[in-house]
Every structure is written in C-alpha cells, then in structure tokens.
Amino acid sequence: xxxxxxxxxxxxxxxxxxxxxxxxxxxxxxxxxxxxxxxxxxxxxxxxxxxxxxxxxxxxxxxxxxxxxxxxxxxxxxxxxxxxxxxxxxxxxxxxxxxxxxxxxxxxxxxxxxxxxxxxxxxxxxxxxxxxxxxxxxxxxxxxxxxxxxxxxxxxxxxxxxxxxxxxxxxxxxxxxxxxxxxxxxxxxxxxxxxxxxxxxxxxxxxxxxxxxxxxxxxxxx
Length: 222
What we know:
Blueprint (H helix, E strand, L loop, with lengths): L10 E4 L3 H13 L5 E4 L5 H8 L3 E4 L8 H12 L7 E5 L4 H10 L3 E4 L4 H30 L10 H17 L5 E3 L5 E4 L1 H7 L3 H4 L17
Parallel strand pairs: 1-2, 1-3, 3-4, 4-5
Antiparallel strand pairs: 6-7
Helix pairs in contact: 2-3, 5-6
C-alpha cells in the first residue's frame, strides 16, 4: 500500500443534494483526503469516473434525472475488468429487495441516512486499503505471469487457498493499520499493525465495533 494513502486516494461523490456533498467533503477532508471529486449531476458521473478512475465511490440511489441504479448499470462495463472499485451507497432506509438489487448491480456496502461521520471515515479507510491491497495483488500476479510462474487460479480450491494466503501475507506486511468489518460494523479481522496501534490482540479487536475505534473529532479545516 502506498505510504501516502489515504491522502492520495481519489474519492468520487455522486449525489444530487449539494448540501450533503459539502458535508461529505468536509468529513473526508478532515480525515486527510485531498483528492475528493464530486458532482450533483449524475449525468456527469460516468465521464468523471472515466477521466479520474477513483479509488472509492460514494453514491446516492434516489437521484434525478438518472438514479443510482441506472448509474451502476452504466458503470458496470468499467467494473468488470477484474479491478476492485468499492462503491458505497449512501441512502435512506431501504427494503432488502432494494439493497439486493444494488448489490447485484455492483454496490459494495450501504450507509444509511442520517449517517454518523465516524462511519464514513472508518468505512472509507477500510475500503480504500482493501482496494490498494487488491491492486498490489494484481501487480504481483502480473509479475508471476511475466516470469512464467503459476498464478493462483481462483476457480479451484488450491488456487483460492494460495491467493488468500498471498493476500494475507500482503496484509500482514502493511505498515498501516487495517481493520475489517462486516455489515453490522463488527470487527472481523485486523492486521498486526492494527493490533500494535490499539494495543489489543486480534481476538480482543474482534469483540469490538469499528465505532469503538473511532478517532477524536477532527478540527474543521482552514
């Protein structure tokens, strides 16, 4: 993972509510992100994505004249090339059928309105770290191909185990703390740097919520 992350990470916010966009930009800026793009016109989202290739998308579902589902469909060809681009849908309480439809269209996670700024910060950190890890794994696999060595085949159990082991090794070697959480915000994994940062074991961290690990409220940027 780049030592400059997360400040170098590109984040694209797509929401037709300019006030919400400004709130999200402030939250992300306060956590150190300096490359936050946004648009309140969903028709501009695809051209912006193609130009900037963001590392994380924050997407509203209920927009006009193009809603979030239509936009996910437009993005699909750019998300099916084996790259991992996390998409967080920020929306009001929705039925399970709506969430399942969004997941099927390419969404990664959901954050409900009204949201806790700490949840935005922690989920953004986690997903961006996972994206950088995924990109590093792809580069490693490409090097194996160029050397004529075997690349783990995810279609068989042996290859899947090898790939997971490789991914875990990359995670363990990272100097940055990485916390992994499930949909309920419960910690389900952490790397050694995270344990060192918190002074807790993996077992202790897995009894916590990501909200237990929240940083102090950041000061407003100048």
